[in-house]
Amino acid sequence: MTLFLPSAPTPPPACVSSAAAGLLPVRQVMARSETTIRVLVVEDEPLYAEQLEAALEDLGYEPVGPAADARIALALHRTETVDLALLDVQLRGATDGIQLAAQLLAHRPIPLVFLTSHADGPTFERAQEVGPAAYLTKPVDPDALQRALALAVRNFGAAPPAAAPPPPPATVPDALFVKENGLLEKIRLSLVQSVAAEDKLCALTLADRTVHVRMPLRELVMHLPADRFVQIQRSYYVNVEHIERLDPVRHLVQVGKQLLPVSRLYQDELLRRLRTIG
């Protein structure tokens, strides 16, 4: 099947020093003297994320997050005031930091600063396509971090406003169209219980059948409502509206008639998305 859009163990990271002699306070760099610059931190290593937050606070910035994956980062970008994004390139999950950057810019343009542990040429070339203000190699030198952030905000504020993008084409809400046997069949996303990667295909599980789509998972998830679908494994997303039970001790979730394992990496975000009482 082909998907059509409707036409109408890792070593501990090196520490980031949060203080460096000779760094200018951010207030001397920004014209917005009354407003603290809010920086979205996207980093999947908890210890390193904490160190980045501490460094940002010492430099006069206000951290937002941290976000451990693309879905959390997008949700924060939509719901919080964010002036700048500090992104790890190698994120866990189907969407890496470069793909996430493009999604953030599509929602609302902001200056971007990339962090990476792998300064290889192909990755750098991909990163250039989204126009980052800086591309820093871990462990981050505090002087370099301060200067990159200051230049990112200054240059972004000095740039002329971009032309407004053309309005998107009209689409059918809450639906995708899947091509099968020469026909386009409408699949309502509200009826999709889960989405899983299967080799080069994606399996969309509904109550009565499974539909296969010829598209990588990292591309398909861009068309799923972020407020409805949540990641539970590296290659598995579920619709929170179809969750029947969750066992946080055995790390299992029942979605419709499916009993699925939940990775420890994603369980906290899954719990956060569920309204719990008692």
Automatic annotation (TrEMBL):
<dbReference type="GO" id="GO:0000976">
    <property type="term" value="F:transcription cis-regulatory region binding"/>
</dbReference>
<feature type="domain" description="Response regulatory">
    <location>
        <begin position="38"/>
        <end position="153"/>
    </location>
</feature>
<dbReference type="InterPro" id="IPR007492">
    <property type="entry name" value="LytTR_DNA-bd_dom"/>
</dbReference>
<dbReference type="GO" id="GO:0032993">
    <property type="term" value="C:protein-DNA complex"/>
</dbReference>
<feature type="modified residue" description="4-aspartylphosphate">
    <location>
        <position position="88"/>
    </location>
</feature>
<keyword id="KW-0597">Phosphoprotein</keyword>
<feature type="domain" description="HTH LytTR-type">
    <location>
        <begin position="176"/>
        <end position="276"/>
    </location>
</feature>
<dbReference type="InterPro" id="IPR039420">
    <property type="entry name" value="WalR-like"/>
</dbReference>
<dbReference type="GO" id="GO:0000156">
    <property type="term" value="F:phosphorelay response regulator activity"/>
</dbReference>
<keyword id="KW-0902">Two-component regulatory system</keyword>
<dbReference type="Pfam" id="PF00072">
    <property type="entry name" value="Response_reg"/>
</dbReference>
<keyword id="KW-0238">DNA-binding</keyword>
<dbReference type="InterPro" id="IPR011006">
    <property type="entry name" value="CheY-like_superfamily"/>
</dbReference>
<protein>
    <recommendedName>
        <fullName>DNA-binding response regulator</fullName>
    </recommendedName>
</protein>
<dbReference type="InterPro" id="IPR001789">
    <property type="entry name" value="Sig_transdc_resp-reg_receiver"/>
</dbReference>
<keyword id="KW-0804">Transcription</keyword>
<dbReference type="GO" id="GO:0005829">
    <property type="term" value="C:cytosol"/>
</dbReference>
<dbReference type="GO" id="GO:0006355">
    <property type="term" value="P:regulation of DNA-templated transcription"/>
</dbReference>
<dbReference type="Pfam" id="PF04397">
    <property type="entry name" value="LytTR"/>
</dbReference>
<keyword id="KW-0805">Transcription regulation</keyword>
